[in-house]
Amino acid sequence: MTTQDLTGTIWSDVDRALSGVTVRAERGLLDLIVYIPRDEVVRALRALKRDAGVSFDYLRSLTAVDNEDEGIDIVYHLYSTAKKYNLTVKTTLPNDDLTVDTATAVWRGANWLERETAEMFGVRFRGHPDPRTLLMPEDMDDTFPLRKSHPLAEIEVLQGEGMGYTEEDR
Amino acid sequence: MVASPQHEFETQDLLINVGPQHPSTHGVFRMVLTIDGEVVKDVVPYIGYLHRGAEKLCETMDFRQGSGFMDRTEYLAAHNAELSYVMAVEALAGLEVPERAQWIRMILCELNRLSSHFMFLGAFGIDVGVFGTPFIYAWREREAIIDLFEEISGDRMMYAYFRPGGLAWDVPLNFKERVREVLKSTRQGIKDFDELLTQNEIFRARTEGVGTISAEDAIDWGMSGPSIRASGVPLDVRREEPYLKYADVDWDVITGENGDVFDRYYCRLLEMRESVKIIEQCLERLESGIIVPDKMPRMLRAAPGEVYIRTEAPRGEYGIYMVSKGGNRPYRLKVRSACLSNLQALRQMSVDQYVADAILVLGSIDIVLSEVDR
C-alpha cells in the first residue's frame, strides 16, 4: 500500500517478501523506508531475512528516535549481502506501551543494539535473552538519557530555563 | 608415565576478571572469563566505561561543532568518523562537494586507515608477545602520518578538518610531495612488518587456527571491516556502495579464508597496500580547484528528513543515522559503531580457546573503546 511512485527502488521485491503484512513505503534520501505496525514487525523482519528474493541477512543498525508526543520510533537498517539491497524498517511505539518483540531471534547481532536502545529510551524488547544494561550502570533503570525529556546534565542546569528546563526536573 | 585416573576428579570453574584497566584490553574494557584449567568456558564482556553520551551531545551542537565532536568518538581514525557525519549533513542539506575536496578527503581517509592499522600492528604485536620491536616500528610509521595531518589540520588527532560542504581550508602547497614522502616510508614499514610478523614461525603458530568465526556467523553478528573480510565475506562499503571517488580508482577488496586471528591480522596488512595504491591514484588525479561550494549558506540548515550514511572506516562500517526536523542541528544522531558489533562476536570466538589466546582474539578485532561506548 503506497501512494508515492517507487519505481526504480527495490519496492516490488520487498512488497513480494512482505505479503500479508501491513506496510507503507516511502522513498528515503538513500534507501527505501517501510513502516510496519509493531505487532507485525518481527514477523516482517523474519520474512525479509528468509525471502530469497531480498534476503536481508545483515542488520546494520538498530536504534530509536523519540518523537515526544507521537511516541518512539524503532528503526532497523538492513542490508542484503547477496542482493546488495538496503532497507530501512520503522515501527512506532505509543508512549503508553513502549514494548516491541525482540529481533535477536532473527539476527543475533541485534542483542547489544537492543540492550542499548532499551536503556537509552526505556523501550522493552519482549523476549530478549539478556535484558541487562549495556552502557549504563546497572542501577540506572528509571531514567532514559536519550529521551527528549531527559536534561543534558550541567549544561542545561547552567543555562537554566533557556533550554526549557522545568523546576520539577531540578 | 602417567597413571590413568580411576575416577573423575571434581573440578571447579574459576572466574578471572580482565580489565577494565589492563593494557591487553586496549582501553577501558572489562571481561569476566570463566575458565576450566587453561580453557575459556565463558566470556562476559562489560562495556560502557567510556560512555560520554555523544549522541545526546550532538543533538545540542550545530553541524560545524558536530563534525568536530565526531573525532572524539573514533580517535584513531578521526578523518573517517568526520566523513560520515559531514556526508550525512550534505545529504540532508543538499550540498554538492567540489571534486578537489572529494579527492583530498579520500587521501586523508586512506592515510588515516594506514595510521590506524599501524597502531593495530604495534599493539597486536604486544598481544602476541613480540615485545617492543613491532610497537616501536609501528609508532615510527604512524608518527610520520600524524605529522602530515598536523601540518594540514593543525592537530595531531582531533582534526575537525572536514566540514559540511568541503574542507576547512586548502591543503599546504607542498601537499603532494609530502604525501609521497610519507608513502615511501609507509611502504617500507609495511614490508618490515610483513617480514617481522607474517614470516615469523612463532607468530604464525600462535595465531593460525585461533579464534575462528565462520562467514555465516560473522554476518549474523553484524561484524564488518577487516574482521568480517577475514572470514571470506567481501563486504566493503567502498566497493558495495562507492562514495567519494572509490569507483574511479583501481583497488582490490582483501578477503581471508579461515576467519582466524592470523587472517584478521593479514587482511589488515594487505589492505594497507591497497590503501597506498588508492592514495597514489588520488594524487595523480588531484587538481586545483575550489574546496567548498560557491554558494555555501552562511547558516547551514538541513531539510527535514532522515538519512543513514555508512562509510568504511579502518575498523569497519562507521554509520551515521541522522534525523533532521529542520534547523541547524540534528534532531537525533546515532553512531553505528563497527567495534560494538564486532565485539558482540567475542564470546563465540573465545570460548574453548586458551586464556592467552582470548587476549589475542580481543586484540585481533582491534577495538577502540571510545567508539564502542561513544
Characterize the structure shown.
The complex is a heterodimer of chains A (170) and B (374). Chain A has 170 residues and is of the alpha/beta class. Chain A has a single domain, classed as Beta Polymerase, domain 2 (2-Layer Sandwich), CATH 3.30.460. Chain A has four helices and seven strands. In chain A, a hairpin with a 5-residue loop joins strand 3 and strand 4. Chain A starts with 10 loop residues before the first helix and ends in an 11-residue tail after the last helix. By secondary structure, chain B is of the alpha+beta class. Chain B has a single domain, classed as Cytochrome-c3 Hydrogenase, chain B, CATH 1.10.645. Helix content of chain B is 48%, strand content 14%. Chain B is built from 15 helices and ten strands. Chain B has a three-stranded antiparallel sheet. In chain B, strands 8-9-10 form a three-stranded antiparallel sheet. Chain B has a two-stranded antiparallel ribbon with strand order 2-3. In chain B, a hairpin with a 7-residue loop joins strand 9 and strand 10. In chain B, helix 3 packs antiparallel against helix 4. The longest helix of chain B has 30 residues. Chain B is globular. The mean pLDDT of chain B is 88.
